[in-house]
Design goal:
By secondary structure, the chain is of the alpha+beta class. The chain has one domain. The protein is built from four helices and eight strands. The longest helix has 20 residues. It starts with a helix and ends with a strand.
Length: 172
């Protein structure tokens, strides 16, 4: 298999576009893969965890680094909706590898009068291999040495979200 970073960079935007068009909405997702599967964690599904705060931006660094440690993953990605000052809406994709490879891209999406997604452009409008759209991604692969109570909290959180991980077989 091609390396995880290139796999996610190539396949994740295609998969996520299909999910967005099916649900007619852009929901933040964190994703990674091992040798057989790609895992997707839709963070908005877990608003009840973390004392009712959900998986906040502050918690994301810890969750991602915990998942990296748990699954021994070598690449991670995230996607979320953003709007520019001119109200252009786009999906911001950020990718990062254990080797500090980075890739970001913006794919414009279109809404109907009810605010439902009707289309996502296949071609990305902006990209970068230096700067992430979301600065949190810079904290991925930090190799955090979690204190015991934090590790217990993250283990408990993982047990809550693990059944909701969407698993997709990798394309060979």
């Amino acid at each position: 298999m091609q390396n995880e970073f290139n796999y996610l960079k190539k396949e994740f935007p295609i998969l996520f576009k299909d999910i967005v068009l099916h649900h007619k909405a852009v929901n933040k997702v964190l994703t990674f893969c091992d040798d057989e599967n790609q895992y997707l964690l839709f963070t908005g599904k877990y608003s009840e965890v973390n004392g009712g705060k959900g998986i906040t931006d502050e918690l994301e660094t810890y969750v991602v680094n915990f998942l990296i440690e748990t699954y021994k993953c070598k690449a991670f990605a995230r996607a979320a909706a953003y709007a520019l000052e001119d109200q252009t809406s786009f999906i911001g994709y950020d990718f990062k590898s254990i080797d500090d490879d980075k890739w970001s891209q913006q794919n414009i999406f279109h809404l109907d009068d009810e605010g439902k997604v009707t289309d996502v452009d296949d071609n990305f409008s902006n990209s970068s291999d230096k700067n992430n759209i979301c600065p949190i991604v810079n904290s991925y692969f930090e190799g955090i040495d979690f204190p015991k109570d934090t590790k217990e909290f993250l283990t408990n959180l993982y047990e809550q979200v693990k059944p909701g991980l969407q698993i997709v077989k990798l394309k060979k």
